[in-house]
Amino acid sequence: MSMNSEGRPTGLENVEATTTKFESYSGHQGLRLAEPLIYEIGSTELTGVDFEDLEEFDAQLGGVERQSEIGCAGLAEPDVMRHYTRLSRRNYGIDMGVFPLGSCTMKHNPRLNEKIARLPGFSNVHPLQPMSTVQGAIELMEELSTWLTRMTNMPVVALSPKAGAHGELCGVMAMRKAHEAKGDARSVVLCPESAHGTNPATAAFCGYKVKAIPAKDNGRVDMQALIASLDETVAAVMLTNPNTCGLFENEVRQIADAIHDNGSYFYCDGANFNAIAGKVCPGDLGVDAMHFNLHKTFSTPHGGGGPGSGPVVFSDRLKDYVPVPYIVNDAEGKFALKEWLEIEGDTSFGRLTAFHGQMGMYTRALTYMLSHGIDGIKQASEDAVLNANYVQASLKEDMSLAFDSYCMHECLFDDGFLKDTGVTTLDFAKAMIDEGYHPMTMYFPLVVHGAMLVEPTESESKYNLDQFIRSMKGLAAEAKSGNKQRFLAAPYHAPYARLDETLAARKPILRYENNES
Amino acid sequence: MRYLPLSDADRQDMLSTIGASNVDALFSDVPAEFLNAKIDLPTRKTELEVERHMSKLAAKNTAAGSVPFFVGAGAYHHHVPSSVDHLIQRGEFLTAYTPYQPEIAQGTLQVIFEFQTQVAQLTGMDVANASMYDGSTGCAEAIMMARRVTRKKKAILAGNLHPHYREVCLTQTQYTDDELVSQAANPSDPEAELQAVIDAIDDTTSCVLVQNPDVFGNVRDLTAVAEKAHAHKALLVAVFTEVVSLGALKSPGEMGADIVVGEGQSIGNGLNFGGPYVGLFATNQKYVRQMPGRLCGQTVDADGKRGFVLTLSTREQHIRREKATSNICTNSGLCALAFSIHMSLLGEKGIRQLAMVNHKKTLDLKTALNSIEGVEVLNKAFFNEITLRITGDATDVVEKLAKKDIIAGVPGGRLFPNAGLDDHILLAATECVTDDDIAALTAGLKEVL
């Protein structure tokens, strides 16, 4: 047995058993702890919350008191702590490592934001308490509005949309309302093929027919095709810029002019604003409405799928059509929220959500903006673009680039380099898990075959990027050398092996059922 | 800049690898005239400076926990156990994305599966989705879903539905095929309001939306509405804004609801001045493929181990694009997690106790207010909300009480402008309300009336 400098054994040559798989009695595997469902460890008799004792009283519940069992399992507090702590350890989050999920934008989540959002003056105020008692909250919304409008050079913002797709709805509804106000009913919205799926879905929900616009070989929207499609039926064009191929639409100003000449509106999907924030103002490019993914660009937690926040900025052409509520100043200069449409003369298209939107996200986003400052936001955009181009340049010999030009904050590869290797895009992505990374976005955008969209963001250091690049080079070389084994059943080192998605869809089990009863 | 890990030397190194002379070269696709626009906004602040600035703003607001507080009407001040907030702040939950890679997202996925089960149990339905933005947007989704199921267009909105919910439904469906019919609010006679709903149902009806307890706090039995709806092949959409009420009341499923939609904020989530909240959405098994939003399903991994994945996404926008069931993309994942943790702490026993404590506080509140001259409590059956009719202008009274640091409730005119409810006040009492709070409100009301 070999010894280290302290005389302790280091070799494992006599301990072959460690490489043999065996089942433990508990189901645990060391620190990889098994965790049943709460229904298998808790009971309807257990609770982790104490309440004051109630004496008998006559309820006034109108004769519809609950008689039947609810069935919800309870756990005492220690077991709740363990249950969720154990579950959390099966998740990959941005705090663990590189999370290059293109178009989804996973960046550092400062804990200062969390602290500020939890100040009782923000977290514990009710949307319907008297406005005189929430002046700070409305002032915060006003300050956030100032940041968003100045960063875009657009005059007004609607804060209330609760997610990016909700923001799209807000923007397109305002456009429709504006057309109606002019007595100019139009029926078609143009969406490039590379658009997020929410864009055509949103247009359809606003009553429009959707017409797709193809992309050119260079990954940009085909401007000739777009202009040829513009006629008096076209209400709006929805464009993502920077687009989903990670490229800036360099003809954007000509596109905007053509849209406006046609009497149409220009919607910009702002999901990728984090590439240009502080560098380029969308208002200067002729945009009429653009949503922010506040939770992406300005770093609020993604929480496994939300909550999001999707404020929308509007141009002069649309500013009269924004939804309620919005901020007004009363005669004494105090802040108030206008919550209802007037009976006459109001052109707002309505209300998008019960209250004022995602205050918890506004707080975090503004905290982030103040921390960065406009200089820091500009630097962050530059670093995001620099990091993406660095990854692209470093890997372009190893993987196949979809478009050989500078990219914005994300770089796009296709599956060309995997041709004839027997390794698919999915296999390659799963092998990245074994390297300790969350895989990139796969199969999107649809215009590129076997797309792999890598977004490192400004949060990554050069050290992290170099390590990531080394892994990607290694995996690419291994796939090309014919070592399929490493990929076909990957991941080998994740908490779970590949999950059967077909089975889940064919025989949906969507809740726990106690099979013993 | 404390959040940016690149040094200037790194940047130079990386630029030379790329072969670009400077960073602006990377932005060469942006027409030069639009690049590096001058933007009039402040530069960076230290962590301490930011805290100071934001704390000042927060201090200008009156927080619910600091004064007697009785505001409800769609959002409720409840106590959230400390462990909930601690657990949702674990980085592996907080900073994870949509579970697109199930092998390394089983934490999120199992939580969603448990959440779906909890919501289905509470509502008395077969299945629930993985959450909506909030209760109001969930209502609009329910209307569109009922149209897909029934292939009929006319949705009837009960008069005592939360007026903001009604507005959201009207806004969101104004360009879809749905036709919405809204009825008049009736705070003093909830039975007549319900009967009006029943009378309005006919063969062209796709669904009826009825809130229970209604926005004025009245509890009612929806069974008769369900029967009439079903007789005309329409769906009953049961709506709630106070999820805690489900711990005390017969479930919407037991009353015959086909879709249940509501706000889950009360469990695990703070008031947050209106958001983020968590929309709950449940239905029966046969309608699962028409349900909007994300779903998590059970399956096995390649080793045969039970695991979970997002499923049935063929209904969603990323597959069906303009034919999608809904354009919803994000959900309220983290809020759903908070809900689920709080529910796991409560369990059946705890949610029943919590509900009864809420009801008892409200009963005490009602008794105290009824003793004041010039105040009439309208509700006979209620859960944790009641509506007063007062002699005087409610907005004025609420504002005067606010000056005394008592946050009394919502003036009827704020929720129902021009509806003749300017002398109504909507109040809620939760477990956070103390006997002293009730005494302070009572004394205050006597003074200002």
Automatic annotation (TrEMBL), chain A:
One of its GO terms (biological process) is glycine decarboxylation via glycine cleavage system. It holds the Pfam family GcvP2_C. This is glycine dehydrogenase (aminomethyl-transferring). It catalyses: N(6)-[(R)-lipoyl]-L-lysyl-[glycine-cleavage complex H protein] + glycine + H(+) = N(6)-[(R)-S(8)-aminomethyldihydrolipoyl]-L-lysyl-[glycine-cleavage complex H protein] + CO2. Residues 201-303 form the Aminotransferase class V domain. GO terms for cellular component: cytosol; glycine cleavage complex. Residues 380-482 form the Glycine dehydrogenase C-terminal domain. SUPFAM superfamilies: PLP-dependent transferases. InterPro entries: Aminotrans_V_dom, GDC-P_C, GDC_P, PyrdxlP-dep_Trfase, PyrdxlP-dep_Trfase_major, PyrdxlP-dep_Trfase_small. Keywords: Oxidoreductase, Pyridoxal phosphate. It is an enzyme of class 1 (oxidoreductase). The glycine cleavage system catalyzes the degradation of glycine. The P protein binds the alpha-amino group of glycine through its pyridoxal phosphate cofactor; CO(2) is released and the remaining methylamine moiety is then transferred to the lipoamide cofactor of the H protein. Its EC number is 1.4.4.2. GO terms for molecular function: glycine binding; glycine dehydrogenase (decarboxylating) activity; pyridoxal phosphate binding.
Automatic annotation (TrEMBL), chain B:
The gene is gcvPA. Its EC number is 1.4.4.2. Signal peptide: none annotated. The glycine cleavage system catalyzes the degradation of glycine. The P protein binds the alpha-amino group of glycine through its pyridoxal phosphate cofactor; CO(2) is released and the remaining methylamine moiety is then transferred to the lipoamide cofactor of the H protein. GO terms for molecular function: glycine dehydrogenase (decarboxylating) activity. This is Probable glycine dehydrogenase (decarboxylating) subunit 1. HAMAP family: GcvPA. Coiled coil: none annotated. Keywords: Oxidoreductase.
